[in-house]
Amino acid sequence: MSLKEKIKAKFQLAETRYSVRQIGKWLWQASRGNRLQAALNATIGLLFVAEALAQVWAIQHTIDVAAGNTEGNIYLAVTIVGLLILASFALHIAEIWVKNLLGIKAQNRMQQQMLDRLLRSEWKGKEQYHSGDVINRLEFDVVQVVNFITESLPNILSVLAMFLGAFCYLFSMDRILAVIVTAIMPLFLLVSKIYVRQMRHLSRQVRNSDSQVQSVLQETVQNRMLIKTLERGSFMVQRLEDTQSVLRANVVRRTKFSLFSNLIINAGFSLGYLIALLWAALRMSANTLTFGGMTAFLQLVNRIQTPARNLMSVIPTMASTFTAAERLMELEEMPLETQGDDITMQAPCGVRLTEVTYAYAPEEGNILDQLSFDFTPGSCTAVLGETGAGKTTLIRMLLALLQPNAGKIEVYDQTLVVENSPLLRNNFVYVPQGNTLMSGSIRDNLLLGNPNATEQQMWDALEKACADFVHDLPEQLNTACTESGGGLSEGQAQRIAIARALLRNRAIMLFDEATSALDPETEKQLLQNILSSHQKTIIFITHRPAVVEYCDQVLTIEKL
Hints:
The chain is an alpha/beta fold. Helix content is 62%, strand content 10%. Helix 2 packs across helix 10 (291-332) and helix 13 (455-464) crosses helix 14. Residues 6-14 have low confidence and may be disordered.
């Protein structure tokens, strides 16, 4: 076994998915738009270095003037120290200002970019990542990456500048001491690679378990009514405790490794400081070093060792950042949908399925098998079938969220026939099953269907969707809805969702059990309003006989 393999086995180093080079390239691309803040932070850091080294000289000069070892004005010397302290205050204020003013903008920008990338990716039907995990990545991992790019990297530059400046200053005063104090650095460089590799592995375990905790919290809060009615509150609390215990165990392992590593390195630093103290004391006792010189010695040793310690603190940050970058890179690996300009068909248009076959996974068997049907332009079709027959899968394929494993789906009008793709989604409007309102006002929800809709258009859509009850609400269109339409009944929320779809005004309308919460009379009136014009191709996924009566064709899907 080679030395590298022995070290890897000793520290149980795990293989990483991405190389340092790949992550570095990704971080460089991610830095676009954030480089101004990074440059400002780097400039402030370098000014801090200049101010700190100037303070060392000023304090040494003041002490030597006071002791009579150097000629000068004591008041002027103290004034210079005071001015340098004021400069330090000003730099601290500038540092905080840049961090708070530009830092949040940088985080917001990256979150927007990642969310946009996520929304443009293919939808697989079986999500690869839990929504709680995705939110955890978009929140905590983005913050980690942005802070590293805009703060940690510029800080490394100033740390290195401080180290080199202090070393040169000390070297000019005592070459032997400068070499002794920096002797720890080769050891630091030797162990850093092993340290980073293991910290990346341990940080990955912590971040993954943290995502699992957030996933449990999110699911529990979203489904608290179900949990309460099932009286399983204690079960969910225990489930949270189980995931939290895994998180705690991973944090403990990472902390133990970090403490052990820091103990070894800090012992070396402490030994170096004691040697410097002894050397300075011996020289001072031999009258080869002034009191001001000894003070400068000890300050410079601190100025050398502090950057080295800071570099040690950067390593865990770097490991955590590499982990965060890996988790964001995984999200970006999801393939994008077909990109390009929308293809708009002339209304009415139809959708034709030719021997369409689909399976979510080969081992699970086909959900749809050689299905052929023509939703002709201007028709109204009821899609029937028992649970699990593939009705929802059909909807997803019509919306180009899924692509057939075999066969084809075409959208056509009087002059054009185009194979279905995300570029044709602008011809569809979809009303999902259940309550799909978002938090905000009724107006906000309606404007999701058409951001340019006028007040009158919104009222017309509400009337057509049998949602006249909005007139009677105290704040009418400005009535607030909480998450999932809280504050409204299921039937009211459903009718507002239908009004939102009508405002979108597309040639093909898909309704997935969209009238399930309506009473028979309201449902009848709603169907009459929707079907009054034959300019739309309408597809109902339904179990309700009243809906079937209004349709001119029926597609029955048999469960395979």
